[in-house]
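#struct-queue
[09:14] JT: dropping the first one here, sequence first, then the structure tokens:
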Amino acid sequence: MRKPILSPTRLTTYLACPVKYRWTFVDPRGKVFQRAKWYYSFGTSLHRALEELYKGARSGVPVLAEAVERLEENWVSAGYSSPDEAEEALGEGRSIITSFVEAEVERAREVEVLDVERRIQLDMGEYILVGVLDRINRLDEETIEIVDYKSLRDRTTEDDVRFDVAMNVYQILVRSVFPAKRYLSTIIALQTGEATSVEITEHDVAQFQAALDDLTTEILNCEFGEIEPRPKPICRSCDFLRLCRKHLDFEEAYTALE
């Protein structure tokens, strides 16, 4: 029997709403209700452009003209309400890429880019833990840096980095492949190029692993068909709201929430 797969996206979806997790990852009938989102297309476009940039030299900093060209080549227009809205977003994307490249040049740090968009999977016993990492750098002989791009942010904090589910999962995955004495987690807010880095220790990883064990046990043993939906603020933009509103108790509580 094939082991279940868990990823940062699946974990954060479950934490946000188990019912959304059901319709997104468990029950195939949920696919009918899913719609393309402009913000997913926007983020995908930026990530693809940066992936292409770093796949070439694997070191140094990107060239601005090449960066904009890569964005235009990899632009995804799904989910926008009109061609004009997509074109406006592309203009914003060009501005974000420009800010990112200028920030990278200003930092001007020499790093070895070990990989970009690297998919790592790790057998955790009862399940497979999977993640796709935006970038992995070697800063020096002792230090590995895990870089994650946030396309819709203009700033980050140390807490954003330290408590981000995906960044903690990436720490587990990278340590299984790239041995080092020190590991940094870095989030880059692409709208400004602002970067925040935090060193993650073995103790930090052990603490997250304990919480992850509890969460994954809950997910793997969940009877999703028996969960009664409960209204939350995220319901307003959820693809599956129509399904939840079929439940009388949910509908009454959701109407009160509005």
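[09:21] JT: and here's the second one, same format:
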Amino acid sequence: MREYAKEQIIEQYGKEALAKIERADYTGNVLLVYADDYVFEIIGGVLTNHSMSIDDILDLLDIDMDEYAEENDWEDWDFGALKMLDVA
């Protein structure tokens, strides 16, 4: 992971989030994460050389966020908490 990406993650989400990303087993140069005041969860990673929307990544990873939230015992989820992180 490039230094600028590490610095940006620390600035936006904290050192704990960076440590979680560094321990995670993911593929790709873009991570889809769920980050709100209570949760920082890595949803998945994709390898891309073009811009993608969050909906594009969810479709590519075949993730239904309602099912994902239910499987992880979340009471609810917020689309605005889904973020794409450049980790290349």
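[09:30] RK: nice, looked through the second one.
[09:31] RK: Helices lie at 3-13, 15-23, 54-61, 65-71.
[09:31] JT: good to know. The first strand starts at residue 30 and ends at 35.
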